[in-house]
Amino acid sequence: MYRSKLWTMRMFAGFGTADDTNWRFKEIIKSGGDGLSTAFDMPTLLGLDSDDPMSLGEVGRCGVAIDTLADMEDLYAGIDLGATTTSMTINSPAAPIFAMFIAQAEKAGTTRARLGGTLQNDILKEYQAQKEFVFPPRQSMRLVRDTISFTAAEMPRWHSVSISGYHIREAGSTAAEELAFTLANGFAYVELAMKAGLPIDSFAPRLSFFFNAHIDFFEEIAKYRAARRIWARWLRERYGAQLERSLQLRFHTQTAGVSLTAQQPEVNIVRTAIEALAGVLGGTQSLHTNSMDEAMALPTEKSARIALRTQQVIAYETNVAHVADPLGGSYFVEALTDEMERQAEELFAHLDALGGGSLLEGCIRGIEENWFQGRIADSAFDLERKINRGDRVVVGVNRFTEGNDDSSMELLEITNEDEARQLKRLDVVRHDRNQAAVDEVLARLAAEAADPEVNLMPCLIEAAGAYASLGEIMGAMGSVFGRHVEVPVI
Amino acid sequence: MSASSASRVLIGKVGLDGHDRGVKVVARILRDAGFEVIYTGLFQTPATIAAAAVDEDVDLVGLSMLSGAHMTLAPAVVAELRARGCNAPVVVGGIIPAQHIQRLKDAGVAAVLTPGAPADQVVAVVRQVLDDAAALH
Q1: What's B103's domain CATH number?
Q2: For A486, which of B41, B73, B114 is closest by C-beta distance?
Q3: Which among A14, A75, A230, A238 has the fewest CB atoms less than 10 Å away?
Q4: Tell me, what's the ipTM?
Q5: SS3 helix, strand, coil % of chain A, rounded to 5?
């Protein structure tokens, strides 16, 4: 896991309109980042257009606003998508956004078969932790199935699902819960695709993972090591995979946003460096390092650059990447790895029983019964109590608070002008497109959504090409799929 | 009247922000401190929050905001509450940059809790805001 090829320094970026983010992407490429990672704004994450009443105040704020193919064209303008890899953090509307991405790339001259990258597309953790859901779980899983089948057939360089523990951990789980819930979700996607008739070795090599790097250094390294062992064993023994690539767990890592403090924010550079080192010693294939100001706002260009420099120091100055699994054989890390694995297996056994011998069914029922959500909330509250009692020290928060009154850091301010610009852009696109073609393809999409045997990807690519908006596409599918409403537990 | 621990508090998530770790922790902290806590769940609008506050006859509304939309949505919640004749004070908690705090207060928000606020501070601020509101009305 290094000796020959370093990890990909993949910095997550996105804000304002597609033009703004395109500029940031080019800066990242110039300063030595080697993969793109797209952050979408809240309306896009929920499949809403920028002019939806619910989008008020949220357009372009937490990421880039994408309404139509026209925005996707601006987002990647002047970037050779055949030469870089692109990651898109999108889940509920993953299939239509992916369709827009493909339509845009093919219009710009890169065939889908040459596109390399990752679609997050991990809907199960949305219900469990991240909570950006739209359709009910079973209907959403059909879209995941369609994207897995589509990429297995047509896009050999594409990772169809990035099974994500990151958000589960950020929502408050323990390290062992992050490990177990994430891998259980992975088994659920494997069972979903096998149920659709795909041979395991045709899609398993294109599944990838995304873990958190929290501050408990050795525990995190043990978590990554345990994940690799479990995945290889389950894929071979339970699901019958034979290709070595199917057994290999590849993962992206992001340092823990939740470990950052608003107090004395410069100290976050140190936290992020330690967390990043855990990811590297744990063998991550790609890494995002958070910026010091992210407990308060989206990062400034300067703070994002320091975060990337942190990775470069680890990669090029410390020599830690000269050896694979450097902590293998350490009595402490080996014992922690065994313990992580044991705790994860206990949780798998619970979910397997809940699903009557199916992890796919177990994960969906666990969501429907609020089992995941309740456990995560309990663990979050446990940690909060420990911090409150002082049993867990957070520098600047419950100890060593001298200097907390210094609030001189310059923060990125996003104005409402971005929102106004985006609304105008969407108006122009709606005016210029062929409305009859849009109506026709949306009607066909709704009809195809009603037939669970149909793969929706070809129709979604057509809808994107006709400049149907994300909200319109989600609306057409939603007329058949309905909406998910969470019964909140506290 | 001094704010008794039996005060009713509505805790809500307004807008599209799905981050619900903080809101759930705060709900439990207030519940453990003796408040009666009603949690709205996700994806509320200023109008649905205000309507729920009136229906539940609450003494205080708490909003958890981590998406950056607070400058638009928090004043809108205050306006919707007042339009319905509800004087319940509004407390905002979450990722709020220091330079926004006074602007939120100018827009009618009673208090702002920022990341790292310990449990006893959350409870103290809520009690103080309730006391101040009781003194006014």
Answers
A1: 3.40.50.280
A2: B41
A3: A238
A4: 0.91
A5: 55, 10, 35
